[in-house]
Amino acid sequence: MSKLSLTTAKIHQDFPMYSSEHRGHFVYLDSASSSQTPRPVLDAVNAYYETYRANVHRGMYQASETATKEYEAVRRMVADFIFAKEDEIIFTRGTTESLNIVANGFVERLEAGDEIVLTVMEHHANLVPWQQVAKKTGCILRFIPLRTDYTIDIDAARRLIGPKTKILAVTLASNVLGTIVPAAELAKLAHAHSAVVVVDAAQAIGHIPVDVRKLDCDFLAFSGHKMYGPTGTGVLYGKKSMLQTLDPLLFGGDMIREVSFENATWNDVPWKFEAGTPNIGGVIGLGAAVRYVQKIGVQGIAAHEAQLTAYALQKLTEIPSVTIIGPNVTKERIGVVSFDVAGMHPHDLATILDADGVCVRGGHHCAMPLLRSLGHMNGTTRLSLSIINDEKDIEALAAGILKAKKIFRI
């Protein structure tokens, strides 16, 4: 293959998990589940806990003021990163909480017969909340199917999205198939019927450019831990007009303006959605992760991962009894590749690969309805790429699969 866009040997120096004194042979191919964390992120989190550990928005002393300044600076940074406005960014614990905030906020606005449209590829985090909304309101769930090449059936979408559609909730990129969804095109169809558009960008953020203006979505959610940030951090973007009318999910300190024994009024957007003491160190670490991605460049990251994805598809298809589940091209997918080895359970393959230091995920990947509808009752094995990967990782995976086939005599 042609020379990779990024030099992984240099990048590995930023990641303590690649320290030779920390562990031996390490091939990490599970970034779609959770990415590794670079030293600048760890340093930012430690700096908070070691030098200005205090609560935000409350203290009239320097440590608290510094914490508040650093915390709110991340809000500006994230807004710039996705081309939003600062007061449209809410900090959450992750994509799951972000999507639940939106779903919960629409329970009182929907009624029996209204329709919520999703794709068949949705992660449980963007499916189960809407299932619960439908049970409470009598709404009907509709699902946009796939074409035989694992891409969205846009013609079916045009038929499904109509006057009864109130919510369109779609992933930007599938965590199982790697398929990139034409979310902007779907949003245009939904907005033609005055429907609200919700985008799950958990797998796309930090891997491909994400621009909420171009998507024209009303809400967008992502997690910090999938783009080199700390766990327990996430973002909910919402158009301010939407956030102003949306009810909060959690109630308590800092999200209120005034409280009496009988009643309470809410703080301004975005703080009305941030009840209680937030994950201050985590959010500061999220800011460092954004800086890290921006320093490398999202376009460069996308090019690097596209090259590796093409190489992975090539190497896997060369192995007899291996079937790719997802688009067999790079232009319509991210660096997530699911595959099946005939006669072998995904959990068995993942265990054998782990013995050689190769980390992949085996199972349903929190998308059980999708994989069962495709006939993969036991799930699949999944590799997922990031800036830390290179050709040697793909070759180690291929060698591990061949070893597993010998063990199982396949």
As a percent range, the share of helical residues equals 25-40%
Strand order of the largest sheet: 2-8-7-6-5-3-4
CATH topology of the largest domain, by name, is: Aspartate Aminotransferase, domain 2
Characterize the largest beta sheet: strand count, sense, and whether it forms a barrel. 7 strands, mixed
Reported CATH architecture of the largest domain: 3-Layer(aba) Sandwich
* Topology as a string of helices (H) and strands (E): HEHHEHEHEHEHEHEEHEEHHEEHEEHEH
CATH C-level class of the largest domain is Alpha Beta
Model description:
This protein is α/β, with parallel strands linked by helices and 410 residues long. It folds into two domains: 8-30 and 297-407, Aspartate Aminotransferase, domain 1 (Alpha-Beta Complex); 42-295, Aspartate Aminotransferase, domain 2. Helix content is 38%, strand content 16%. It contains 14 helices and 15 strands. Strand 3, helix 5 and strand 4 form a beta-alpha-beta unit. Helix 2 (39-51) packs antiparallel against helix 10. It is globular.
What distinguishing features does this structure have?
alpha/beta; 2 domains; 7-stranded mixed sheet; 4-stranded antiparallel sheet; globular
Q: Topology of this structure?
A:
Blueprint (H helix, E strand, L loop, with lengths): L7 H5 L14 E2 L10 H13 L10 H20 L7 E4 L2 H11 L9 E5 L8 H10 L2 E5 L9 H7 L4 E7 L11 H9 L4 E5 L11 H4 L3 E5 L10 E5 L1 H6 L10 E4 L4 E3 L13 H17 L1 H20 L4 E4 L10 E6 L4 H10 L2 E2 L1 E3 L4 H6 L6 E5 L6 H17 L3
Parallel strand pairs: 1-13, 3-4, 3-5, 5-6, 6-7
Antiparallel strand pairs: 2-8, 7-8, 9-10, 11-12, 12-15, 14-15
